[in-house]
């Protein structure tokens, strides 16, 4: 049988691919950032993925989300993700969860062990609780900071949260985590100042005051960088840090 991971195997080696195929990664949030991260993890040979997002796919998601096409509009993002990823890697064990991570329900999301967590959550309160929970349980986690209203993907980078600048979301998360005693945390962020968005007509979801403008290339690039960190961490590559 032909090995679909042969090109990655050539780059990372047999031992690394073996570790990936026995790893379980949870991706919280399957929007413009998380969807591309999940796809990259699947295409790279991660053997088990838990895919978490409550929302349905809408037409306005098609401009930037991996699983969003006209035929999936109206589907739960988690279900659409599992459908696509099962076709990419039939051997990948997929656990779609159409649910929103919240402090009150956090135990529902930790019924099985994870080797790594990707935080691509939009809501700050949920993001903070997930980060704090992962740190308390010694589960490696990386978070996405803001990608909305940004145009220059070349400014994205992997960094410690303490080194971030120019990102309003990172500033809030840094302050709140410091109050919780968490001073260091890996993130993908961009120092690019947000652009002024043109007027839109999309109604903000519950918990959001507004909806940011978004390109395809910035959130997708952020998702790929998240996947790079996870793959590097799981295979002990130095590029994880």
Task: Please tag this protein with its features.
alpha/beta; seven-stranded mixed β-sheet; 7 helices
Topology overview:
Elements: H1 6-12, H2 14-21, E1 24-28, H3 34-43, E2 48-52, H4 77-88, E3 93-97, E4 116-119, H5 124-136, E5 141-144, E6 157-160, H6 168-179, E7 186-189, H7 217-234
Verbal overview:
Helix 4 links the parallel strand 2 (48-52) and strand 3 (93-97). The model has no long low-confidence stretch (mean pLDDT 93). The chain starts with 5 loop residues before the first helix and ends in a 7-residue tail after the last helix. It contains seven helices and seven strands; from the N terminus they run H-H-E-H-E-H-E-E-H-E-E-H-E-H. It has 241 residues and is α/β, with parallel strands linked by helices. The longest helix is centred in the last third of the chain and has 18 residues, at 217-234. The protein has a seven-stranded mixed sheet with strand order 3-2-1-4-5-7-6, with helices on both faces. The protein is globular and about 50 Å long. Helix 1 packs across helix 2, helix 3 (34-43) packs across helix 7 (217-234) and helix 5 (124-136) crosses helix 6.
């Amino acid at each position: 049988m032909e090995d679909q991971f042969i090109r990655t195997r050539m780059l990372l080696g047999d031992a690394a691919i073996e570790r990936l195929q026995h790893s379980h990664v949870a991706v919280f949030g399957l929007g413009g950032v998380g969807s591309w991260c999940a796809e990259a993890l699947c295409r790279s040979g991660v053997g088990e993925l838990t895919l978490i997002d409550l929302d349905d796919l809408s037409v306005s998601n098609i401009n930037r989300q991996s699983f969003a096409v006209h035929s999936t509009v109206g589907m739960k993002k988690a279900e659409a993700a599992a459908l696509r990823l099962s076709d990419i890697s039939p051997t990948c064990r997929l656990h779609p969860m159409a649910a929103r991570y919240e402090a009150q329900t956090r135990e529902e999301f930790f019924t099985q062990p994870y080797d790594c967590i990707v935080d691509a959550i939009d809501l700050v309160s949920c993001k903070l609780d997930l980060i704090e929970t992962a740190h308390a349980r010694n589960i490696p986690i990386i978070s996405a900071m803001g990608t909305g209203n940004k145009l220059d993907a070349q400014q994205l980078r992997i960094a410690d949260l303490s080194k971030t600048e120019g990102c309003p979301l990172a500033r809030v998360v840094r302050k709140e985590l410091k109050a919780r005693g968490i001073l260091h945390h890996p993130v993908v962020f961009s120092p690019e100042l947000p652009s002024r968005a043109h007027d839109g007509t999309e109604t903000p979801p519950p918990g959001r005051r507004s909806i940011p403008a978004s390109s395809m290339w910035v959130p997708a690039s952020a998702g790929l960088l998240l996947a790079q960190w996870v793959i590097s961490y799981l295979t002990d590559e130095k590029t994880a840090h």
